[in-house]
Every structure is written in structure tokens, then in C-alpha cells.
UniProtKB/TrEMBL annotation:
Residues 7-17 have a biased composition (Low complexity). Residues 1-23 are annotated as: Disordered. Keywords: Carboxypeptidase, Hydrolase, Protease. The keyword Zinc does not apply. It comes from the Bacteria. GO terms for molecular function: serine-type D-Ala-D-Ala carboxypeptidase activity. Its EC number is 3.4.16.4. It comes from Streptomyces hundungensis. Residues 74-380 form the Beta-lactamase-related domain. The keyword Protease applies. This is D-alanyl-D-alanine carboxypeptidase. It is an enzyme of class 3 (hydrolase).
């Protein structure tokens, strides 16, 4: 769902606004960005039982990445795993544990909830529909969904699809609502984990709040909102007659043979192979999470509260293949890919900008990477790559507190 409380909210408006953690992370620091790249076919072999991290090809060319992965786990998160590809070299690393009860180690092919990385899939479908002439990015929300975005200053007649996808709509993010955060990210989650949310309910919740700012093309205003992508999914359904999940499956998952990737809807389980997901349920993802506070198993949950903002499940192999296909032009033609990679800068994050379902980040070494991060209860992920798709990285940690996953990204692309 939002990036589910996983990407952070970084508002550029004078008024500021929170952003979901999944989204929330973005605010805090540049959420995980990530990006591109196409991948080879076959699954990478599971990580071996020996050692905390290992090279799938028996080579150790990722010492810095291995060290960063292990350091994140030492800071308290249960476990994590990463898959990196550079040219013909493929490396899989792991650290910690995937299951605190059994002691099972992470596997290279483990599936996990990807949070806001879902947004790149949604934006890709929307741009395919534009290419086919079935909609325009300049269409207003009201054109497709009359009267949906209305109230407390929101006006769907003044917001277009492009503004939904690049977070310049100003629409309030429902994941910032205090009651919502209490139910979904605090200990009340234990009572509400199987609740079903509809897209309309989610938008109605957002409409009970004022917008962060009026919809704009002003580059000085940007605010991450999970509501934007829930609305986008409703536009896809109206334009095609099918759910956004159906369109993702038919247009992306099946053609690319992403067999470990699903759009679960209301299904609560994560199909194997997979580890467990853990949270401190502090009310914020990747929040402080006192080391001695209770750790909860949050693996099973009804992800409809995230919907098109962050409900999908995948693994590192599939995510790498997806981004490679995207940046190679296999999923979008040149004009649409250019549109997707046209970014809005974020005032307080000078090395970060956002396109249509894509983040762009310039790392400390000057390397530019594209992609997205994702957060949802018990799961923090990133998928990033160079724009040419030659170097790609996907990772996941099975805890949502004290996660410093950016260390792994920096280590892989900068070597430190």
C-alpha cells in the first residue's frame, strides 16, 4: 500500500505532510529508491547453509555488500537477503534468520511483501494504456471517476493522472491518518490484521482530510501519497473493465514469467518458499523500535489496506527481471519510458527525485540509480539499478524497525 508505510513522505510544500512509512521512510531519508533492470531467466540457487552470506557463483566480488548486509542485521533486524547482478555475474547474499522459531536461514528465492515497489508495476500498466490510446496522462481524475475525489478542498476536476503517478496531486495520504496507523501499524493490528478495505473506503478516508497543497506542476511542491495509487488502480479498472491486478498479471507477470510474483488481493498468506515477517508494532514502519520491546509475527495479514499502493508479493529474482525488462524497453516504448523517467525534484532531498512510479537517486559516489523501495508490516525492500540495466540489486529484510537498507545499496553500487 503505500509504500505502505514504507516509503517515506517527503513533502516539498511549505505546509508539509506526512507520508506513509513505507512511504514514511522516504521522508526520513530517501526511501529506498531503486531501480531498473532486466534479469536472466532461471532462479538463483538458494543461499547455502554455511556462513551468513555467500556468492551464488562461488566468487566473492561483493565484500562491501556482504558487510553492509550483515551490519544491518547486527543492528537488530532478524534477517535479510540480497540478489545483485552485474553483467553476467550474479551474487546472492544472506544474513541472520528468516524464522525466529525454527532458525531457518533466508533463501535466495524467498518470497516477501514488496510494499510500494508495487507502484512501479501500476505506473507501467498506466503508461501502456496511454501508449494504446486508451487514456491520457492529462485526463483528470473526474473524467474517469466523477465525484470520487471531492471534499475538504480536494477536487478531482483539477487533478490529472500524471499528478497521481508523480505525487504532485496534493491528495492526502490515507496512511497518515492517526486512526489508520493505530489499526494497521500499532498493536491494534493484531485485532485488525484480517480486515478488508475497499479502494473506495480508502479514498473516502483520505477525503476526510484537507489536501497537502493544491494540485500543481510547480516543482517546489511534492508529497508522497499512497492514496494516489489507489485512485490510479480505480482508473485502470474503469478504462479496461478489469481490475488493476488482472492487468498487471496479463501485461507483466505472465509475459515476463514472474512466477513468484502475485497480487494477493485479500489473501493473507505468503506462499512458500518464504520466511516470517516481524514488527515491533510501534505505529511506524522502520521506526525506532526499542531493542527490548516485543517482537510480533505479522506474516499473515489481509493486504487490501495497501492495495495498489503496496500489496504485491515477489522475490529478488523476479524484481530484478522486472526492472531489467522495464529499462530495456520490453514493457514500454521510448516515449512512455521517457515520460516515466521525467522526475520531480524534492526540495529537502537534493539527491532524490521522483518520476512516474520510479525514484531516482544519486549516491555518494555519484552513481545514479533508479527504482523503488517498499515497506509494509514486517518487510522492508528495495529494488534498484543503473539506467542501462547492467547493474541491478534487490533486497529484503524481514523486520520493519531500525532497518538501514540504504547501506546495502550504497555498498553494492559504490563499493563502500
Amino acid at each position: 500500500m503505500y509504500e505502505l508505510p514504507h516509503a517515506a513522505n517527503a513533502s516539498r510544500s511549505s505546509r508539509g505532510s506526512g507520508r506513509p512509512r513505507g512511504e514514511r521512510r522516504l521522508r526520513a531519508a530517501a526511501v529506498g529508491l531503486v531501480a531498473t533492470v532486466v534479469m536472466s531467466a532461471g532462479l538463483v540457487p538458494p543461499a547455502s547453509a554455511a556462513g551468513t552470506a555467500n556468492a551464488s557463483a562461488g566468487r566473492d566480488g561483493h565484500a562491501a555488500t556482504r558487510a553492509a548486509l550483515e551490519s544491518v542485521v547486527r543492528d537488530g533486524v532478524p534477517g535479510g537477503h540480497v540478489l545483485a547482478e552485474l553483467g553476467n555475474d550474479t551474487w546472492a547474499g544472506r544474513a541472520g534468520t528468516a524464522d525466529l522459531t525454527s532458525g531457518r536461514k533466508p533463501r535466495a528465492d524467498d518470497r516477501f511483501r514488496i510494499g510500494s515497489i508495487t507502484k512501479t508495476f501500476v505506473a507501467t500498466v498506466m503508461l501502456q494504456l496511454e501508449e494504446e490510446g486508451r487514456l491520457s496522462l492529462d485526463d483528470t481524475v473526474d473524467h474517469w471517476l466523477p465525484g470520487l475525489v471531492r471534499g475538504n478542498g480536494h477536487d478531482g476536476k483539477k487533478i490529472n493522472i500524471r499528478q497521481l503517478l508523480n505525487h504532485t496531486s496534493g491528495i492526502y495520504s490515507y496512511t497518515d491518518d492517526k486512526d489508520f496507523k493505530r489499526k494497521e501499524f500499532g498493536t491494534d493490528f493484531l485485532e485488525h490484521r484480517y480486515d478488508t478495505w475497499t479502494p473506495r473506503q480508502i479514498v473516502q478516508l483520505a477525503m476526510t482530510h484537507e489536501p497537502v497543497f493544491a494540485p500543481t506542476d510547480d516543482v517546489d511542491k511534492w508529497s508522497y501519497s499512497d492514496t494516489n495509487y489507489v485512485i490510479a488502480s480505480m482508473v485502470i479498472q474503469k478504462a479496461t473493465g478489469h481490475s488493476y491486478a488482472h492487468e498487471i498479471e496479463q501485461r507483466i507477470l505472465r509475459p515476463l514469467h514472474l512466477d513468484s510474483t502475485t497480487v494477493p488481493g485479500t489473501r493473507a498468506r505468503v506462499a512458500g518458499p518464504s520466511g516470517r515477517a516481524y514488527s515491533k508494532l510501534t505505529g511506524e514502519l522502520a521506526g525506532p523500535g526499542a531493542p527490548n520491546s516485543t517482537t510480533y509475527d505479522v506474516t499473515e495479514l489481509n493486504p487490501s489496506f495497501a492495495g495498489a499502493a503496496g500489496e504485491m508479493i515477489s522475490n529478488n529474482h523476479d524484481l530484478n527481471r522486472f526492472y531489467r525488462a522495464l529499462f530495456s524497453g520490453r514493457l514500454l516504448k521510448a516515449p512512455q519510458l521517457k515520460e516515466m523517467m521525467t522526475t520531480v525534484s524534492v526540495k529537502d532531498l537534493p539527491n532524490f527525485s521522483y518520476g512516474l512510479g520510479l525514484m531516482k537517486m544519486t549516491l555518494s559516489c555519484g552513481t545514479e540509480v533508479w527504482g523503488h523501495n517498499g515497506g509494509i508490516q514486517g518487510s522492508i525492500s528495495q529494488s534498484m539499478a543503473t539506467a542501462d540495466g547492467k547493474h541491478v540489486l534487490s533486497l529484503n529484510f524481514n523486520g520493519d524497525w531500525n532497518v538501514h537498507e540504504q547501506r546495502v545499496v550504497d555498498a553494492e553500487f559504490c563499493g563502500s
